[in-house]
């Protein structure tokens, strides 16, 4: 009979377990060895993504394969350095800057650009947008754009500013008149006037006019005209006047509200007045005496009293001449009697009302004047144009009778 069967079964079972363990150990060791060998063949590189570094190991051969392996979604606007086709080397650093979309508004017209730049001026340069000295920009050129991803630009233009009496050309951006004045640091006084609605928009080549208004109180002393009183005087020839009492102007203090625009007085309103000195009335005597001419056909002066004699240049006129009224300066009706003997004189040489004798004419009265009768010149009255032509112009002797 053979050996113990239980013992034999146990021995066989133990050998099978040892063989299984040995096989499993070989497999695990092989896998571990393979893993170590696989990892050991990877290339170590550093990826710098928007300033954040990450060290990785990879079997990728190029930069592009590495980014695809990392499932990096990069666009044509992103910046990758070195270039995508570059072969990977151990310890290589790969720079990846992800582009962002930025909105640029110029006078309300928006455009969108992709960029990896952070500074405003670099973004504008990349977008080929130039900013002038007086343009208004939402962020400083040296500032970073931040999280807003928007740049707002208002282009400056020239317009005319008239401030009182000063006119100048200034730069501004599209804004309201009120904001424009604030930008220009212009202060408006209480009564100043802007000849444009403060809420109105200003546009290129516009004109903003400020009228500087000033209200002041002005107290002045002014003269007060005197009244003229006339009185009839029968001792004076009609038409003659004589000052009886000289007039004197008074004085009055007047208070005015004066309104000036740009330094020029445009309105002066009387507020009050006070008489300081009353005026003195001027009294004038007006003559009413009418001289009646004596009719005389005689040229004889032998019966007349002696008087001053001198020579004058004599012409003749009729009461019917152009512009003649038929009434003399002393009130004589020259058309009433064809026998009247009247001469026109210069009253400073022969006073009106003086009785005279005229050579070749006879006794007459100085009862009229004439615009051209000056100095030693007289005009004798005749009653027809023919008589006037016959008389002509001559030098005659004249004698003052009284």
UniProtKB/TrEMBL annotation:
The keyword Signal applies. InterPro entries: 3D_dom, 3D_YorM, DUF348, G5_dom, Resuscitation_pf_RpfB, RlpA-like_sf. CDD domains: 3D_containing_proteins (cd14667). GO terms for cellular component: outer membrane. Keywords: Signal. The keyword Phosphoprotein does not apply. One of its GO terms (biological process) is peptidoglycan turnover. GO terms for molecular function: hydrolase activity, hydrolyzing O-glycosyl compounds. Residues 210-290 form the G5 domain. This is DUF348 domain-containing protein. It comes from Lysinibacillus antri.
